[in-house]
C-alpha cells in the first residue's frame, strides 16, 4: 500500500452537533482551516477527484473500495499557469474523455475557467467554501467540516487512516455506522442536480449511541 493512499469515510448532514460533541469529548481540536475551492464534476466521472485550490489543480484517484470505505491516492498537483497539454491529461481526459481545441498553449486559472471549463457542455465547476476542524482519534485524522456548496450549507464528518479497520472503529465510536460514505465530488454532483444520490445523502442516516 502506498503510504499516502488513505482509506476515507465521509458523510453529510445539515447538522452534526451531536457528533461534534462526541468528537470533542474524545480529542482536542488541533487545527482550524478555511478555504475556497472549485470542484470540477462531470456526469461520467467515477474514480477521480479534481479541484482547484490555492492557484493549483489538485487531483486524486480512487484506487480501492473496502467495507464501504474509499481509498484515495493523491495523483497530481499543477500550479497555474498550466499548459494546455496538462489540462488535457489531468482534467479533461479523467472527467469526460474528450479534449477540446485549445486556443492557447498556456492558461491562467481565470482563463482556464472562463474559456474552456465553464463553457464545456459536460464539465461543471462547483464552488465550495470549507471551514475544517481537525482532530486525531485512535490514529485517525478526523474532521468536522462546515461547508457551503453553491451557497447550500451542509456539514461533513470525515475519518481517514492508512488502516481501514481503524476508520471503521472510529466510525462506530461516533455513532455513524448507519450513515452513507459520500465523497466531495459525488456530493457536488447531487447538490447541483447532475447525478442525484438515490434517496439523498442522509438515507439511513440515524445516529447510533456512540461513546
Automatic annotation (TrEMBL):
Record-given protein name: Uncharacterized protein
Source organism, top-level taxon: Bacteria
Organism listed in the record: Methyloceanibacter caenitepidi
